[in-house]
Amino acid sequence: YQQLKVQEGGIRAKIMKRSPGFTLFTFLDKQVTKAEVKKQIKYMKPSTQEGDDNLNESMVEMKLQRTTLKDLVSFILLVESEENVVSIRRVSIQESGKEQGYLDVIMQIRTFELKG
Fold this sequence. Notes:
Layout: H1 2-17, H2 24-34, E1 41-49, E2 55-67, H3 69-79, E3 86-95, E4 103-114
Antiparallel strand pairs: 1-2, 2-4, 3-4
């Protein structure tokens, strides 16, 4: 329990260092542009879950269609950010049914925000 409390304190410190007005959706929008996978986005669904101890979990479920493995890896490397407390919670990868060599991917990407 004490170790988790220490980790939580580190998360709070990192959240406080983020740029003012940081939102997960905007962060992801910038990363898809950098990774050049914006055309492959089928949807992006944001949600928020109430948490304990003044932290809420902000999440975006995203579906990429007909993307290459190279583009997916490039995008993941841009998204996973210890500095911004952004991580991939879950990922599902399937071979695209339309074209060989392409992937359909569903990801849940999350971060934490201070309440209030």
